[in-house]
């Protein structure tokens, strides 16, 4: 089945026409609590979370979102979660990347990973590189996964890899020089950042790219994040007034 034969969002899933985010970010929080509520192992929450992610990408395509970036594993998770949980997450990710080729082709998803990828297990690095290679020509949706990622680590890495630039640079040239050394220099700023699971913080996610992002927090646990929740986030975004430091009250976004 091709995407063009999928029906679009239903009336209750559809945000008001007009303004939608060009680049949408997700902090997918609440997998562990979802599992605990059901007396299941935390890992089962991650498996359900992966399914929710799969469904969310379909919704993003339906809603014509151009780019989606999701926080799968932070540098802090990498250092502090149990070996068993990390191994499960690595295997889950590698498995999905290997299994979802058809889906990525069907949805025309261009996959990218960001983070300190070189510290990941070899099998996962290979799966990431293969998926990146094989989907690089897809034009439907850029999907980035942040794995062993930290916003401060990204800035420190950019700075240390030459992004500090030439001291003679002035004004905005300094930011351009640093941005060229971020993990994916082609990644645009976030328009909307959604965090599930009830916490209201950034947790070191995309510090550079979320400078002017609209923030949306929902108590819904990630595995329960549905089409209606997705539409509610987009609807809220469409009501925001984005000024980027100016005094104008016009709304602008990915397509405005
Ligand atoms: C935060 O929930 C979630 C994570 C640390 C992992 C996110 C991973 C997924 C959604 C699965 C991704 C899978 C693929 C294939 C990319 P938490 O465990 O911190 O939840 P809690 O706050 O309820 O404990």
What is the strand and helix layout of this fold?
Layout: E1 23-27, H1 31-37, H2 42-62, E2 67-74, H3 75-80, H4 83-99, H5 101-106, E3 109-114, H6 122-135, E4 141-149, H7 151-163, H8 172-179, E5 192-195, E6 214-217, H9 227-239
Parallel strand pairs: 1-2, 1-5, 2-4, 3-4, 5-6
Bound molecules: farnesyl diphosphate (FPP).
Farnesyl diphosphate is lined by residues 28-33, 46, 49-50, 53, 72-73, 77, 92-93, 96, 145, 197, 222.
Strand percentage lies at 5-15%
Which parts are unreliable, with pLDDT below 50 for 5 consecutive residues or more? 1-6, 249-256
Shape: globular
Largest sheet: 6 strands, parallel
Mean pLDDT: 90
* CATH architecture designation: 3-Layer(aba) Sandwich
- Helix fraction? 40-55%
Per CATH, what is the topology? Undecaprenyl pyrophosphate synthetase
Rounded Rg = 18 Å
Widest sheet: strand order? 3-4-2-1-5-6
Kindly give the count of domains: 1
Tell me which ligands are bound.
farnesyl diphosphate
Helix-strand sequence: EHHEHHHEHEHHEEH
Work out the number of β strands. 6
Per CATH, the class reads: Alpha Beta
Distance between the termini: 32 Å
**DSSP helix count?**
9
Q: What structural class do the secondary elements suggest?
A: alpha/beta
Task: Please characterize this protein's 3D structure.
β3 (109-114), α6 (122-135) and β4 form a beta-alpha-beta unit. The model is unreliable at 1-6 and 249-256 (pLDDT under 50). The protein has helices spanning 31-37, 42-62, 75-80, 83-99, 101-106, 122-135, 151-163, 172-179, 227-239, and strands at 23-27, 67-74, 109-114, 141-149, 192-195, 214-217. The chain is built from 9 helices and 6 strands; from the N terminus they run βααβαααβαβααββα. It has a 6-stranded parallel β-sheet, with helices on both faces. Helix content is 41%, strand content 14%. α2 (42-62) runs parallel beside α4 (83-99). The protein is globular, with a radius of gyration of 18 Å. With 256 residues, the protein is α/β, with parallel strands linked by helices. The chain has one domain (25-165, 172-238): Undecaprenyl pyrophosphate synthetase (3-Layer(aba) Sandwich). The chain starts with 22 loop residues before the first strand and ends in a 17-residue tail after the last helix.
């Amino acid at each position: 089945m091709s995407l063009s034969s999928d029906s679009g969002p239903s009336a209750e899933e559809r945000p008001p026409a007009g303004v939608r985010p060009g680049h949408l970010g997700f902090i997918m929080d609440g997998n562990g609590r979802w599992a605990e509520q059901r007396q299941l192992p935390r890992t089962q929450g991650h498996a359900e979370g992966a399914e929710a992610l799969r469904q969310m990408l379909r919704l993003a395509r339906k809603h014509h979102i151009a780019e989606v970036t999701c926080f799968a594993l932070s540098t802090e998770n990498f250092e502090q979660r149990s070996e068993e949980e990390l191994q499960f997450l690595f295997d889950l990710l590698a498995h999905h990347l290997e299994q979802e080729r058809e889906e990525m082709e069907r949805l025309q998803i261009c996959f990218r990973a960001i983070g300190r990828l070189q510290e990941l297990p070899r099998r996962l690095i290979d799966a990431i590189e293969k998926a990146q290679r094989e989907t690089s020509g897809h034009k439907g949706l850029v999907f980035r996964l942040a794995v062993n990622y930290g916003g401060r680590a990204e800035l420190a890495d950019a700075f240390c890899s030459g992004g500090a630039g030439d001291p003679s640079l002035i004004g905005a040239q300094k930011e351009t020089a640093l941005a060229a050394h971020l993990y994916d220099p082609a990644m645009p700023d976030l328009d909307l950042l959604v965090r599930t699971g009830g916490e209201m913080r950034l947790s070191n996610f995309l510090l550079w790219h979320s400078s002017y992002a609209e923030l949306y927090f929902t108590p819904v646990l990630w595995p329960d994040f549905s089409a209606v929740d997705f539409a509610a986030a987009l609807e809220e975004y469409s009501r925001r007034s984005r000024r980027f430091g100016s005094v104008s009250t016009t709304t602008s976004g990915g397509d405005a």
